[in-house]
Amino acid sequence: MDGRTPSWPPSTALHAVHDLFVAGEVDATYLDSTSIRPVVAESWRRSLAKGVDPDVDGAESSDATLRLARMRDAHPLASALPVIRRLLVDDARDTGVVVAVTAADGTLLWVEGDPEALRRAESMNFVPGADWSERRVGTNAPGTALALDRELQIRSSEHFSRVAQRWSCTAAPVHDPGTGDLLGAIDLTGGVEVASAQALALVRATAVAVENHLALLRLTKPASAPVADPVGARFRVLGAGRPRWQVTDERGIRRSVSLTPRHADILVLLSQHPEGLSADHLAMMLDDKDLDVVTVRAEMSRLRRVIKPVVVGSRPYRLVEPVLSDVTQVFDELRSGRVAAALDVYPGALLPQSMSPAIARLRTELSTSLRTAVIATGDLAVLRRWLDLPEGRDDRDGWRLLHDGAGPGSVGQARARGHLAGLDLDLA
């Protein structure tokens, strides 16, 4: 993103590599030997790992569709629309270009521009209320710019979704000038000319102008009253990353803080016991030997300050309002029979460093349930996703199933045979 026009590989070559990659005929490392840009190759890998279907006819409607008008009214970028329209939309009316403004979660808030281009964009559901995050539709400029928090250009065949490969796009994230929080992104979508250095400079300049406009508003207008009730409170405790508490407020702004290991343990246990837990019971679940009730009460007091305004009730301790988590989401997807969707939100084991006996039990239950469901599908693509997880690397039975199910002489069978040989060596 140094202002120079990127060296784009030919579209035919990109199509060929894309077809091989999404069909599973080459593995993820093969992309490193091609002319595909590293930022695109990494996005393709993330898209495939999350189970994005490259043949779906565009984005799915976001959960925010029904509250789109409410989001627009409350979103801080609403006040900057005149700036965006003056710098981008007014000159896009007869150029085949669409201008989109997204929230931080990838929901399209406003889509304006050339009328004919707007009609064509509707065919892939590039419309207000649609979710164009990378986790939903794979590699695309606004979604990937939000995922990486950086300006980005994606040209035609670099898109992961085939229906989007008729378009090129350039996007830049926008941040709150006071807090640095990610507010959303500004995107230009159109023909190949949209992937030029000039388009990148224009979108970048518009994002800076919008942030300056918001900073000026903050200086000249009194601060608005804080939002009383959070929207989308949730916590993430799966995988090797640090546990996080996240809240998306009424304006669509995502806020996130790290959780201590003990606070993460407590939140998981409370979410699994909506009836509540006494201090004594919670102490035993956290540590069956050395934890006393006084320590539990002190930790609860600190936790309340971290997750405020979500309320933790007392006697017994309980979450007063529903709070989402990646743990409950995996269980919900499994109960509904959506195994691939469960894998989408399962990057790894539950709090792998936790020593809590109750967390260890839940960790085993979740992992075993997911593995069993994966095997039951008989779907080799789903099985490969499980085997790519840390827990799947030593799953000898799983690798044997992949070896026996893959076609003779296929890349999948060769990979499975090599992995099995490595496991045998470890056991020797």
UniProtKB/TrEMBL annotation:
Gene Ontology terms for molecular function: DNA binding
GO BP annotations of the record are:
phosphorelay signal transduction system; regulation of DNA-templated transcription
Q: Which UniProt keywords apply?
A: DNA-binding
The answer to whether the entry has keyword Cytoplasm is no
User: What InterPro entries does this protein map onto?
Assistant: GAF, GAF-like_dom_sf, OmpR/PhoB-type_DNA-bd
Signal peptide bounds = none
- Domain OmpR/PhoB-type, residue spans: 254-319
Reading the lineage from the top rank, the first entry is Bacteria
What's this protein's name? Answer: GAF domain-containing protein
Protein source organism: Mycobacterium yunnanensis
Q: What is the lineage of its organism?
A: Bacteria, Bacillati, Actinomycetota, Actinomycetes, Mycobacteriales
